[in-house]
Amino acid sequence: MSSTTPTREQLVDRLTADASAWPGIEVGPHRFDGSEFTLGSREVGHVHRFGTLDINYPRQLRDALVDEGRTGVHHVVPDSGWTTFRLRTDADLDAARWLLRLSYLYHVATLRRRAEFADVVGAVDVESELDAMEPSPRTRAVFDRVLD
């Protein structure tokens, strides 16, 4: 491996550092050797030290992302809303960040009416971020139902 190619652990560290800066996100240990990202009591996702990112979405959103080839069904619970994405390269890091941020935005959108999340909601413009992320119409439709 060349010295300029990041290891999986370095990719995981970079993703963890990025996500830890998001308003309201708490990073804690995950029971299977990794880091868990939570917003209040909700798990946005978790990443294992060996480069596997698992994210829980509502089933409609998970189905759209899997059908579009952005992520895969979960490696242990394939019939759930959970997905699995593997980090191997810098390009994978960008895709992983996109997927994790999408889950985060979904949770922010669904929590926007709860007073204890007013600071987070005020700091995150879900609709503008979605526009910049350019999700598919099918993915955006899931958000639009929540945002209406």
* SSE string: HEEEEHEEHHHH
**Count of runs of 4 or more consecutive helical residues:** 6
Helix content: 40-55%
Q: Which sequence of strands runs across the widest sheet? A: 1-2-3-4-6-5
- Residue-averaged pLDDT: 93
Can you walk me through this structure?
With 148 residues, the protein is an alpha+beta fold. It has one domain: Alpha-Beta Complex (Aspartate Aminotransferase, domain 1), CATH 3.90.1150. Helices cover 46% and strands 21% of the residues. The chain has helices at residues 8-20, 59-67, 90-110, 118-123, 126-133, 137-147, and strands at residues 25-30, 34-39, 42-48, 52-56, 72-73, 82-86. Helix 3 packs antiparallel against helix 5.
Give me the secondary-structure topology.
Blueprint lengths: L7 H13 L4 E6 L3 E6 L2 E7 L3 E5 L2 H9 L4 E2 L8 E5 L3 H21 L7 H6 L2 H8 L3 H11 L1
Antiparallel strand pairs: 1-2, 2-3, 3-4, 4-6, 5-6
Helix pairs in contact: 1-3, 3-5
Provide a concise account of the structure shown:
The protein is an alpha+beta fold.
Q: Can you tag this structure with a few keywords?
A:
148 residues; alpha+beta; Aspartate Aminotransferase, domain 1; 6-stranded antiparallel beta sheet; globular
